[in-house]
Specification:
single chain; mainly alpha; 74% helix; elongated
């Protein structure tokens, strides 16, 4: 049985929201100096990228509505496969660049709103 595409979108929304909670009140130095936080944030980025990757395979029409999807999936791949080259500044930059667009795009896609989407 195939997973409901809205579940992938919910995963994105939840992970993006959690990244915000994990990093609230931190600056780049505080983030880099807290292994528990940066490890958790990296994991949530991996979840976001994998969820969007799966969504793109099963519902490319919905995936097309998520801004920056190819870059988010590529970032996930960098975290997983290039972990030795990932630095905290890169992830901190992703923290400010990706969660809001991904979350907003996934919310519109999940709710059936936005260009070309209907319930």
């Amino acid at each position: 049985m195939q997973r409901d595409p809205r579940a992938w979108l919910w995963d994105v929304q939840e992970a993006a929201s959690t990244i915000g909670q994990f990093t609230a009140g931190l600056d780049a130095g505080g983030y880099a100096g807290t292994p528990l936080v940066y490890s958790a944030v990296e994991r949530k980025f991996e979840i976001i990228g994998e969820a969007l990757n799966q969504l793109a395979k099963i519902r490319p029409d919905l995936a097309a509505r998520v801004p920056y999807l190819p870059q988010i999936v590529a970032f996930r791949n960098q975290l997983i496969h290039g972990y030795a080259r990932v630095d905290h500044d890169t992830v901190w930059g992703g923290h400010s660049a990706f969660p809001a667009p991904a979350k907003g795009g996934s919310e519109r896609a999940a709710s059936g709103t936005g260009p070309g989407l209907s319930r």
